[in-house]
DNA sequence: CTGTTAGCGCATTCAG
DNA sequence: CTGAATGCGCTAACAG
């Protein structure tokens, strides 16, 4: 059987308080007693039971993470940051994947609450306002990370989307492009960041007296890319676009594939660039020029923010932290 | 403040034992008392504290998962299976990522042990025998999931690698290929599954009186693919190979890219296929014909096995469960 | 510096 | 059917 603090106390011939003191280094203990305790711990291979400890200290050192889908690369990258920094501060990650089911997420909130998590991180593509409301009610501090939606009334960390598309558009213009189309995602546009992304693009275009062209896609799949292609194929062939800036890497890749199927070469005939900077973008050919979102850092900053609030016991400020992006210049864009 | 069982008892005017009984449905309670308790629970929004509960029942309902890198797609897919099935049985996942550091993994084992996890799942590309030894010592049941290494002396779930390459080779032969090269990974070959994969390939070839050609790669990166290409470029140009069967999808993709850079078309000039079946393989062009390893199922079966042992309190059998693979027929292989 | 005591929140005997 | 009492393993006053 695994040994307890009592066993150690008995063997070291001291009280359990003394054992507790040397374990936690919380109060002075005589060198002699400490030696004996340490020895007993060694011999018995004693390890404090964290469950018991949590019960009395009311510190679980647990952070719950609710994700949309752990299989999603974006989610996994953010999670890396969360996990690594969390561990650095001695917190463990309780992971749950909701697969987009909002009711399931509500259940997780309760579950995590019962497990006494000290905070929660939400990593998702979708929006669950009911969940945020519930967490407020439960008085569990939380940080929201969402790539798509514009989050308000919650602590969140993200990028400056408008600035990001502005920079990329500027880069394309610097490379000599003037006929740049922006392929946007129409879904839920009034609540997503797409609005800001379009703004950044348009601003950069207008500033150089270029006419912006926003092309709308209904989704990010191959089918959606096909639909987009149908719409713009003639324009592309006619040279109406020299560059297509797609709102997500995966869409850019599907579009590149469709272009290639139509005998249109990237970047010789038309340049393409994406947004995201996941590993995908450097594996496809041509390698994709894209806006790199700092997923790892987003996760890292989010948990830092959360833990700061937890450790200092002050309420989590419901503000937004913006992290800088980077333009990854690769081969899918050519200079004109 | 969050309410406890005492508050509920007081409000319902019963003892805490009665409250406990209705919560756990463990012993008969009079309808009247039950009603009052339920009402109090409702009003106070009472949720049992799982930490306290764990302490007394000695059941944490926690499974520790130690992974090499959560950012790895393969790991993430397996984790999906683990998480989803674990949750189905009411277990939570404690996640930790070691980034390949074996000492860190040892620390995780201790940490998890202190957190009273009831079992551990190892998902990795690397091998940590010290860790397995330690877990045995700690008496924590565990299941190992490793894509590369041949695991012995541990409960594990994997695929029949020999059979998998046999099937794919057979498929290539059925498609009319006779000059099939197999690109293998040399690293640690005496302990990895590569040996079995080569065996399956060779067996299929020999059975059809074809001569096997194993080509060795030092790694899975682009550089490694380049090295391989240097070795075989002339052979490929001379038509010595009509198909290249690569030991991993990512290697196959890099090789396709290199081939394409050399002006060699896939699959017109040479067919290429991979092994793994991660999402990557269907995004590249041409889409990659590959062996689909059932990552999700591997995770699912692993945790089932683990939980069965946990729940029935019988020792985990240190055997290997084999799961079937599937050949994904796509566009990187053509019929001759 | 040290031991005794009192809980943390809950499940579970054991008497009624 | 119910309540009082005990203890899970540990930390934290408190009194020496």
Tell me the count of domains of chain A.
Answer: 3
Strand element count of chain A: 12
Number of discrete helical segments of chain A:
13
The CATH class of the largest domain in chain A, by name, is Alpha Beta
Order of strands across the main sheet of chain A: 2-1-3-4-5-11
**Spatial extent as radius of gyration of chain A:** 26 Å
**Termini separation of chain A:** 74 Å
Strand content of chain A: 15-25%
CATH architecture designation of the largest domain in chain A: 3-Layer(aba) Sandwich
Helix content of chain A: 40-55%
Explain this structure.
- The structure is a homodimer.
- The longest helix of chain A has 17 residues, at about 295-310.
- In chain A, helix 8 (about 160-175) packs parallel to helix 9 and helix 10 (about 220-235) packs across helix 11.
- The first copy, chain A, is α/β, with parallel strands linked by helices and about 325 residues long.
- Chain A starts with a helix and ends in an 8-residue tail after the last strand.
- Chain A has three domains: about 5-55, 434 Repressor (Amino-terminal Domain) (Orthogonal Bundle); about 60-155 and about 295-320, Response regulator (Rossmann fold), CATH 3.40.50; about 160-295, Response regulator (Rossmann fold).
- In chain A, the strands form two sheets. In chain A, strands 2-1-3-4-5-11 form a six-stranded parallel β-sheet, sandwiched between helices. The first copy, chain A, has a six-stranded mixed β-sheet with strand order 7-6-8-9-10-12, with helices on both faces.
- Chain A has helices at about 5-10, 15-25, 30-45, 50-55, 75-90, 100-115, 130-140, 160-175, 195-205, 220-235, 250-260, 280-285, 295-310, and strands at about 60-65, 90-95, 120-125, 140-145, 155-160, 180-185, 215, 245, 270-275, 290, 320-325, 325-330.
- At the A-B interface, helix 4, helix 5, strand 2, helix 6 and helix 11 of A face helix 4, helix 5, strand 2, helix 6 and helix 11 of B.
- Chain A binds a DNA duplex (16 and 16 nucleotides) through helix 2 and helix 4.
